[in-house]
Amino acid sequence: MQPIVYGLEKEYGEQIAFERLDIDDPDTADARVRYQFRYQPHFILLDAEGNIVQEWLGYNSANVFEEAFADLLE
């Protein structure tokens, strides 16, 4: 997934902020609770207000994310 995510970040990084959470890092405890982050990989797309727009668990292709990004950026 890392090459896909880095490619998406390169393409959309000026429009969408990408954040990575390490499930084992104690500094991410608040975010893990807030977004119910329990599995890796777990992707969450938030709108500008911080509301969850869409979530994905497991591996996905770049076009799955690109479709959601397009809807959000319309």
Element layout with pairings:
Elements: H1 2-12, H2 29-35, E1 42-46, E2 52-57, H3 62-73
Antiparallel strand pairs: 1-2
Description:
This protein has helices spanning 2-12, 29-35, 62-73, and strands at 42-46, 52-57. The chain is an alpha+beta fold and 74 residues long. The chain has one domain: Glutaredoxin, CATH 3.40.30. A two-stranded antiparallel ribbon has the order 1-2. The model has no long low-confidence stretch (mean pLDDT 91).
Name some characteristics of this structure.
74 residues, alpha+beta, Glutaredoxin, 3 helices, 2 strands, globular
Structure class: alpha+beta
Please state how the strands of the largest beta sheet are arranged side by side: 1-2
Shape: globular
Strand content: 5-15%
Rounded average pLDDT: 91
| CATH class bucket | Alpha Beta
The total of helices stands at 3
Would you count the extended β strands for me? 2
Low-confidence stretches: none
CATH architecture: 3-Layer(aba) Sandwich
Tally of separate domains:
1
Instruction: Tell me the radius of gyration.
Output: 12 Å
Helix share bin = 40-55%
Q: How far do the termini sit from each other?
A: 25 Å
- Let me know the largest β-sheet: 2 strands, antiparallel
Order of helices and strands: HHEEH
Fill in the CATH topology.
Answer: Glutaredoxin
